[in-house]
Amino acid sequence: MTRVGVNGYGTIGKRVADAVAAQPDMELVGVTKTSPDYGAEAALRRGYDLYAALDDRAAAFEDAGLGVAGTLGDLLDAVDVVVDCAPSGVGERNRPTYEAHDTPAIYQGGEDAAIADASFNARASAEIRDADSLRVVSCNTTGLSRLLAPLDEAYGVEKARVTLVRRGGDPSETDRGPINDVVPDPATVPSHHGPDVNEILPDVSVDTAALKAPVTGMHTHSVNVTLEREPTTAEVRELLRGETRLFLIPEARHRRRRDLKDYASDLGRARGDFWENCVWEESISVEGRDLYLFQNVHQEADVVPENVDAIRELTTDVSREESMARTNEALGVGLDSLLSDGGSPRDQVAADD
Amino acid sequence: MTRVGVNGYGTIGKRVADAVAAQPDMELVGVTKTSPDYGAEAALRRGYDLYAALDDRAAAFEDAGLGVAGTLGDLLDAVDVVVDCAPSGVGERNRPTYEAHDTPAIYQGGEDAAIADASFNARASAEIRDADSLRVVSCNTTGLSRLLAPLDEAYGVEKARVTLVRRGGDPSETDRGPINDVVPDPATVPSHHGPDVNEILPDVSVDTAALKAPVTGMHTHSVNVTLEREPTTAEVRELLRGETRLFLIPEARHRRRRDLKDYASDLGRARGDFWENCVWEESISVEGRDLYLFQNVHQEADVVPENVDAIRELTTDVSREESMARTNEALGVGLDSLLSDGGSPRDQVAADD
Amino acid sequence: MTRVGVNGYGTIGKRVADAVAAQPDMELVGVTKTSPDYGAEAALRRGYDLYAALDDRAAAFEDAGLGVAGTLGDLLDAVDVVVDCAPSGVGERNRPTYEAHDTPAIYQGGEDAAIADASFNARASAEIRDADSLRVVSCNTTGLSRLLAPLDEAYGVEKARVTLVRRGGDPSETDRGPINDVVPDPATVPSHHGPDVNEILPDVSVDTAALKAPVTGMHTHSVNVTLEREPTTAEVRELLRGETRLFLIPEARHRRRRDLKDYASDLGRARGDFWENCVWEESISVEGRDLYLFQNVHQEADVVPENVDAIRELTTDVSREESMARTNEALGVGLDSLLSDGGSPRDQVAADD
Amino acid sequence: MTRVGVNGYGTIGKRVADAVAAQPDMELVGVTKTSPDYGAEAALRRGYDLYAALDDRAAAFEDAGLGVAGTLGDLLDAVDVVVDCAPSGVGERNRPTYEAHDTPAIYQGGEDAAIADASFNARASAEIRDADSLRVVSCNTTGLSRLLAPLDEAYGVEKARVTLVRRGGDPSETDRGPINDVVPDPATVPSHHGPDVNEILPDVSVDTAALKAPVTGMHTHSVNVTLEREPTTAEVRELLRGETRLFLIPEARHRRRRDLKDYASDLGRARGDFWENCVWEESISVEGRDLYLFQNVHQEADVVPENVDAIRELTTDVSREESMARTNEALGVGLDSLLSDGGSPRDQVAADD
After folding, report:
1. Do B187 and C224 touch (CB under 8 A)?
2. Which enzyme class, named as a word (chains A, B, C, D) (predicted)?
């Protein structure tokens, strides 16, 4: 049983906390907050032990009527690994504390790659030995790694070129723009996303261009991969369908006005989270050696199963394959619609339960 | 045990189904769909019995790999009440079928008031006797009724004037606009929302003006009520705080970038649903006899507890008050944040569970 | 001939400059910019003399290839009045400079009312004597003053209650939000807009509530005015139709999907500017003593004719009525569509010119 | 002097009319509308002769107070060429009428390529002989043709891959979505835009993928071109800078929050129209043989100079080069900012006029 602490119960942290709590081989010892706000209240209502992230703020929690079990240091001393879910750049400031407590740490993709012994993606990372820290790559890099790894393994990737149309802000970030504009962000091309992918897949050549759009829900990728071989469209669809961390959105005739998060909610996922990349099945198309497709990445959620696998990577001898299977099982990752074209229903759903 | 059927497992229907299934005194016998699409698949995955809404489409379900337990007629014969959750206007077409099967029916607010024996709001409706059908009023009318009833009871309402800034489409309706525009909708004033409120509160004078905005999440109401008396701002806040179907969003210093649905999700609500009106506590303000406030209404969800209470109204002798208490208990309606100003925490949440 | 300088060639400043240049009794001596950017380039291309707003930046203009005629001080010495169009709050910092040069000044609505001898709206302000400075009220306050003045004069205003749905940012401000949200802004009610109106109409009781929406084009007002008398709807429409600074958008059957700025462009207005309030004619509705209507205010433009009239107010003996007529004539203010209901076409437009 | 008629005074038609009227070698004889609405009023206010597009509606114009000079047939008999600016697909219905009157016709890109003798782009089309009709390609295809032609001429294009992020609706189309979503449109890849480009450049291999975003102003293209040679980034920037129908947006340090249409308005362009592609100069980047860049296309305007050149192509012996020069001169096409990096100011703008 791996004992886990989450430092920073925010957008990512709260999801990682839930995911850890759902693993049979992990125990969520506690989560931290800097202030006694609604996130802190929500953590307590969920039954999580709350720790004050900053020593000098601990009293404020009590004053606000929220009980804490200790401070960050107390939490670090009680866990086998800490998952740092602080805002981008703050992980670097937290690192000395983790090291002082000798606590192995997992960082998020907003930190520089140099912060950890290795960057990590469960599907795509090569074997990692003797690491005391890992950095789970960003939502977009996670999405690209999961897609490019099987393509490179099966066909060889000569060059990947991806346009990322990113959401301007998360649903709860109501003050971020843009309004009524699609903005190159950055204006320079390529953006940093390609080099990020190379932290995971060093031999895959990737160029990325990024735009920001007035949406909040998900990032959308327009993907081109020039392959070394020429598979058929059907072959590529079959290959990707076999990936548990990719969900193929079946063709339009089975779905009308569809919101992916709405679908996820209908299937019982908390917050309508989509941990898998959502690939539009009908967009998968091979022209010569050029593969094209569209995929969506849920920026609040897709890194969550990766964090869970990173915990096992750091603290156990469980194989990558086994870890992914356990994570998928516990969270229900690996959607497969009954209505997919060409897919045989894996579980026949009857009228009665 | 009341046996319930839901005709139309859509945006409202799927939520009503879940709410009914959560009631200890109700049994969800089944739900219907017209086509074997993702909504139908989701119903089956949730363990609900699926019925074909249209007789001549039943075979299509089997062909698509989704088992049905029968047709609408079969469902009607097996229940004590049917909740019609078809698109606006379709309820009228369904009515003859319900009458032919002698099945008491509950309709939604998109139908004309004349469709049912009475319109219904749990908090605000006067006593209803001998009804065989009820019409739960629309999301906006529900929101206004819940607010105006206590105000009228406590102070008397001379005139209410409400500007409704409505969402252009639900999150899953990606083809509806507007983009980058706030549009009077309708251009004529007053809009129909006032008269709708009079179906519930016939003696309250209400004028409404409606706009449509490029948002998907919730409707926002800018409310003015000229009262017959002059309460203080604190008195009004206290009055509204006591209403279980109103949630007072505490003052800004406890909350930063906050998305109400995100908060609801954090508290464990499926789909981030908000069944309560969300009233900005700090907006509640009395100037002379004029009360002002802002409230949000979650159009996909606020009518759901009303439908549950309507079921008891139609099929049992349970008092309105008792029904609301049971519904609230089963669904967790009646949020009260630990961080509210002036509110004492009802349940002290400890650091340990 | 009044010699005018514009300090700050920005969103408002560039429009004021064009408007001044169009007046037969005014001369635009020059405009200022703080940096040699595209606004500065545009001023030069338009033929305006450019002055460096900050002395120590003058050289930067030459380096960038943009010739300047001097600094702010030089401009102040060459004009009879300066129109301060700096960002909100900066006018206060500029004031000492204007006073040091003995230059009468006009400020914008973003400055505190105390900055000037009086606040100003051409239609609604009472007579102003012996002022050396004026403050043209904000876009919203301008829009409300123009509407409430004739109503108060004709019927008496008992109480005005206005919900302002404001644009999140101007079209060129692509980094401002919100996205997908309508946000109370401020969350407290009433907002400051009512008191602003009282700087112009001290005896009119006004309560305002403000929201921010993800749009860029215009602000939308949902207006209620409780009058002291009971005019008919037709009477109110007639009264408002007679106001040159109000444009009544005729009923829907004459217009389909219509963008007001597009319409303004079609009529030859630069930038698609709407100097007039745009009142939806069909929304004008009287219920008892309650008047309701919707109006849009173009935040980039409606204060412009007010600035022109303020110049005459400060520097000449021209009567308010005469000034408004000159301003309207020179700019083409006072739209009257040929397709208005109840309006007789003022100029019969023939097939041939 | 070529006599021109515009059939359909809408979004494109009104701009084509203005552009034709500005040409010294063309005469705009008249424009048509189907109904006496605000567009019709605007045409008359601008001094254009108005014709009823449909014979049986002519009386309605007079009834509405708008004088017409005749019907479509009358206009066709009075012109040397008609520019069809009807909604997509309607041009095909109009064609027989043009042919019956023996009037050479220019169609827009929304019609099938087969409607005309040839598709047309001034910069990129090969020589066209003996045509009686032309089809000006769509806004996106126009934008792509202008960019790919010089690249193919200078370096050879091996493969172009473009992601088009299109606006959901024009500013005046307030009922079109999406809201808060970026939607593959179509979901299949490649989209039709590539084949459209091949109507102009048959030998250039182009794959396109298209998305729809909740914006109204412009389309944004994320472009990759694999070239046959390896120019430097500077060489490509220089090449593109020399194209009159491409505008290079200089680097960010000269511009802050910038709206391109706002900039166009500041430079005196009616409606803030951008006839040129807007290429982000700093996005132009060559990696090996892969060129990347972002460009915006103003969907309401970029086809306008193309229509003017198409008129000369059809009705005169003027060379393509000469026509483009005349069109550019008359409309002011070919923006070149004084603040461009590496560009020498073509016209030194002085402080005085």
Report:
1. no
2. oxidoreductase
